[in-house]
Amino acid sequence: MNLIFLGPPGAGKGTLAAKAVELFKIPHISTGSIFRAARDAGTPLGLKVKAIIESGKLVDDETTIALVRERLSQEDVRAGYILDGFPRTIPQAEALAGFARIDRVVNFDVPDEAVVERLTGRQICRNCGANYHRVFKKPRQEGRCDACEGEVYTRADDSEEAIRRRLQVYRDQTAPLIGFYRERGLLVDVDARPAVEQVAANFKKAMGR
Ligand code: AP5
């Protein structure tokens, strides 16, 4: 099963992907996570994208498409994958159609106010990537991950200014993908407003599970 998770920043794509990995036993491929890991490791790719990802703008299509194309050539995606955060532009979607067969595009729908509330409170474990929230999902020990005791931090692009920019970029460049995939009969809508467990139930139902 080859899936795309589509939706605005903070829709819960990463959170749901973690659950979908367990359900379908396929890897989660997040272009945002790959870019952040490259930045943290100081690789040439990381140095190139650092300022872009921290400001909330998009990395250029050529770089992003090459990255995903290479990732999808690896052995572990044979049985399927979840693409989270890719494609994000029509040229990316057109390029993807040339080297991958997508079964379903899951569109997580959530209003802007919820996005701002979720992202300004989001915290992430630097070690294992587990997701927390200052209000909705606090780690048991402040600043430390429940799972691995790694340091819990706030992403540079989770400032209110960057979140507003990401929402605008989403509207201008990514939201047109909803129509693109609906026309191709691949789109499944999931209401991402309720609590995580309910969104997970909505997702399972939409996938016929
Ligand atoms: P990326 O990492 O993909 O960021 P994003 O799309 O903005 O998505 P987020 O990770 O912010 O949100 P999410 O939907 O995964 O929500 P989450 O589950 O974490 O991209 C980062 C940057 O990389 C981009 O801005 C760009 O620069 C670059 N990039 C990446 N892909 C690219 C591409 N294809 N082309 C060009 N550039 C690219 O949840 C958010 C918070 O809400 C968490 O705290 C969570 O606990 C909480 N939460 C989740 N669900 C719920 C719920 N139902 N109720 C309450 N709280 C919830």
Give a written overview of the molecule.
- Helix content is 48%, strand content 15%.
- With 209 residues, it is an alpha/beta fold.
- The chain has a single domain, classed as P-loop containing nucleotide triphosphate hydrolases (Rossmann fold, 3-Layer(aba) Sandwich), CATH 3.40.50.300.
- Strands 2-3-1-4-8 form a 5-stranded parallel beta sheet, sandwiched between helices. A 3-stranded antiparallel beta sheet has the order 6-5-7.
- Helix 1 packs across helix 9 and helix 2 crosses helix 3.
- It is globular and about 45 Å long.
- The structure holds BIS(adenosine)-5'-pentaphosphate.
- BIS(adenosine)-5'-pentaphosphate binds next to helix 1, helix 2, helix 3, helix 6 and strand 6.
Key features?
single chain; 209 residues; alpha/beta; Rossmann fold; 5-stranded parallel beta sheet; 3-stranded antiparallel beta sheet; 9 helices; binds BIS(adenosine)-5'-pentaphosphate
Return the CATH class: Alpha Beta
Low-confidence stretches: none
- The H-and-E topology, N to C, reads as EHEHHHEHEHEEEHHEH
Shape-level CATH architecture: 3-Layer(aba) Sandwich
- Quick check: average pLDDT? 96
* Strand coverage percent: 15-25%
Helix/strand-derived category reads alpha/beta
Ligand inventory = BIS(adenosine)-5'-pentaphosphate
Helix content: 40-55%
Strand order of the largest sheet: 2-3-1-4-8
CATH superfamily: P-loop containing nucleotide triphosphate hydrolases
- CATH fold annotation: Rossmann fold
Characterize the largest beta sheet: strand count, sense, and whether it forms a barrel: 5 strands, parallel
